[in-house]
Amino acid sequence: xxxxxxxxxxxxxxxxxxxxxxxxxxxxxxxxxxxxxxxxxxxxxxxxxxxxxxxxxxxxxxxxxxxxxxxxxxxxxxxxxxxxxxxxxxxxxxxxxxxxxxxxxxxxxxxxxxxxxxxxxxxxxxxxxxxxxxxxxxxxxxxxxxxxxxxxxxxxxxxxxxxxxxxxxxxxxxxxxxxxxxxxxxxxxxxxxxxxxxxxxxxxxxxxxxxxxxxxxxxxxxxxxxxxxxxxxxxxxxxxxxxxxxxxxxxxxxxxxxxxxxxxxxxxxxxxxxxxxxxxxxxxxxxxxxxxxxxxxxxxxxxxxxxxxxxxxxxxxxxxxxxxxxxxxxxxxxxxxxxxxxxxxxxxxxxxxxxxxxxxxxxxxxxxxxxxxxxxxxxxxxxxxxxxxxxxxxxxxxxxxxxxxxxxxxxxxxxxxxxxxxxxxxxxxxxxxxxxxxxxxxxxxxxxxxxxxxxxxxxxxxxxxxxxxxxxxxxxxxxxxxxxxxxxxxxxxxxxxxxxxxxxxxxxxxxxxxxxxxxxxxxxxxxxxxxxxxxxxxxxxxxxxxxxxxxxxxxxxxxxxxxxxxxxxxxxxxxxxxxxxxxxxxxxxxxxxxxxxxxxxxxxxxxxxxxxxxxxxxxxxxxxxxxxxxxxxxxxxxxxxxxxxxxxxxxxxxxxxxxxxxxxxxxxxxxxxxxxxxxxxxxxxxxxxxxxxxxxxxxxxxxxxxxxxxxxxxxxxxxxxxxxxxxxxxxxxxxxxxxxxxxxxxxxxxxxxxxxxxxxxxxxxxxxxxxxxxxxxxxx
Length: 780
Description:
By secondary structure, this protein is an alpha+beta fold. 46% of the residues lie in helices and 23% in strands.
């Protein structure tokens, strides 16, 4: 190895020869000393420094040459640093980096790209970059990619699918740049790529969401945190009438209807702030000024810091739904023929009127009005004339009372009136006016009808302080008026209270009947309109009184309900029905599902599901052969509790039916929440339906809506072949009524429908022409 001192002396000689300045020589030494310091001693380095200072003035003439040497050393050092930085970036960038030659083959690939594709660097070097691309993407980008490799373009960005070694596909976004030499010739491409699969999925989801929002029938509104509208969809415009540019930047107050009090909006905001969501019915205003109901859901959208960034509101117009519910509700609380409140609504209003009267210390009156000789008119001139007579009577009754009073139709030719804040003399004046109005001849289709009325009146608080008592006493007074010769009114008096005493005796006998088991069950068949066969029957209770003989339910069930004796009667009927059904099965007769009506106190008695399960196990009756009929009034009394109870019964396999639909408080909307399989229409839906197009339209609508909810429909009170034809046309599922059979004792029912299989094909057992006139339809 050459002596370092020799190299230094040679360097100094060159410096002297080239007349390098002291400054430039110092720069030159900065380059060389790090190289030589491993072999130079400190004394030699000092020597060199002193020598440089002494020779400075001499060697200044060769400054340009030595500057070129120094620049070359600097460039070499910069190149090494650049290479180091590139290698660091290549290896540790955190994203896929690879180099591609001009032939398209991969030259190098970092660890991230290897991890992304599943291939090792050796495997990648043996394949072209195009081989990684999905065939569809390879074809689509081929020309553009070839132009890049041929140096026609310097850089480009490509989004395409990679087919990984595992066979899985991912979306990648690649940025490529061409590296050229000093002469501008392309050498190789450096490519940076990242997995954008999740971003593509998110974008696709956003596109789908945007398409859904654009095409949904529900209005969508997006506001900022201050409530300024940022976005509305086309459905918003269709519903409200406002175009997007009319509301952007506005607040939703532009839709406010003033239908709700301030407390409503305060409650809305309190819930929205507390839970981030509010949902409910709200009334807003369209651009036209029309106020309408909508179902609105508002949700808070939070930013990364947890603060509210936006509010999203989704709504739909529920005007038609409200109209349908209003129609069903009106039908449930109003008489279909006259439009007057029915018994249910009358009872409710009477209860409110009594509370009002007691609060003010004022008297009030209840009138029972019966149209005299109406049955004669109805039977001789027909139902249409009879209906128009009742409608005219309703109009005249309404003309006789004040706006705060109530006129209702209880059924048939019986009307009731509530007179608020009136004394006996005031009630007498109005009763006289009613008699005068109803005595005026009525002209229908050119025929002049002469009618009259009988009226019974009870006063509160003198004659009672409950709705039931006042109605009972007014009814007693009405019968006294009829007994007195009709076309008159009577006030209730204890002297006329013989019927009340009779009720007390009946109550005593009823309690004894419960103890002695004087009841029996009868069966009325239900006909499947699709097959014409009898597949089920309703169980109806009768009282075999030791002195009065067989008593129908209409004469004792109301009293049993009032005295709470209905519960043991209901329990007895249920056990007797299960026992009889099993007896028929054991005897080899065809299986029938028996429908038993459950009273309110029995339905809501704790432990009903467990009691029924024990009864079915004890008697051996399969659960699907027992049907429980619950009236809609009972079910709607406590909807949430009813839903849970019905679900528990349904889980046992028991068939559930809502009885007397149309006489209570429910709607088909609330019916959708109740897990029932059948809907039993009250006989008022069928009565005269063959003669009344409006009633027929309502009947058909109810059947269609019930089927929409997946509920079968049973119609009771069928008495004519024409009614059967209509109900069959309307796709009613089952019917029952006197057209086929009255309720029969067990032995008669067995003989009529079970003994001979061919008789299972239903046909009227009792013709209307031979049906006893005093045999009324069962009511329980």
